[in-house]
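Quick one: structure for this chain?
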Amino acid sequence: MKSLRVARMVPVVAALVAGACLHVAEERAEIDAAVGSASSGDVSVAVADGQAAVRGLSSGSLWLWASAPELSVRLSTGAEGGRRWSIRMENQLPDAVLTAEVAGGEAPVATVVTEPAPTERVWEVELPANAEVTLRLLAADAHSTEPWRFAALADVQEAIDEVQDIYAKMNTRDDVRFLVFSGDLTRQGTAAQLEEFQRELKSLKIPCYSTLGNHELGTSDGMYHQYFGRGNRSFVFRGVQFTMIDSASATVDPRVYGWLEGWLDQGRDRLHLVMMHVPPFDPVGTRNGAFANRGEAGKLVNLLSSGNVDMTIYGHLHSFYAYENAGIPAYITGGGGAIEERMDGVSRHFLVVDARPGEALGPVELVRVE
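Got it. Here's what it folds into:
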């Protein structure tokens, strides 16, 4: 059984938080709420909990970038939708399957027609016109209670041309189910750079579930969401809840705190990992690599501790740190290749985390990429 933690509280100056709340991430939170929904004429789609970015939609065609291992998708086919539909699914688990169910009981079979990359499938399925269809992307091991592992990484930025070395080493790990990425995928978050990052991912044998970093804010608040989906979200896989928070502006939007409280309630009795880009507190203090307001940082860490979070993973600092915040094991893994800090002799790297459902997260393995 997962044990409850006695929180070691970090002092919070409530008045400081209230006075310094600039809501710089408000627009991104609003965009988050709309991710996963789209329409084209009388055709519409809605992904449950916004767990995928809708990259394309037309009569007979749907293109999604998955932001979680499993998806539930509501598709309205429209008056001209009685045809063989093409469902392009990017960033899926290689062994995931797609099922379809038409309201009224019919369950047409979805078949794979092409596999352009290890984590990309193009499915085809015959659907009737004017139908309400539920598509589900399912992983066979989603509810397994056996121990398993996932990888963690952050901060590629300008080193995108060298990231294949990291992916090649990750591909040698048959024990890793997927990668979680805590921000700074790109240099400035332009459409071209986001597309480049997705192209480079095609060599990786496992999907990458990410949140954004401050470098994704260089062009517009919504560009990242068009390609990768929500910056704030939570999903459960194999006994572990994964919650990703947008801290790219060195703060968390007030609306997101409401979502977070709900996710903490959901994850209280299971293992729970929370990840974001900018850490609430700088673990060393030698650079300004933390929240803009220490009062808010304390508020967030206290919230995570009282929510019985088992581990936090951050980026932003281009090195590796292992420490604690209010009794929660914390890791910074900024080893994607961006300008290195080198204060501790750790260069490019990623982490591999053991997950033992019902018991604990960890140990955490530091994997160097020389």
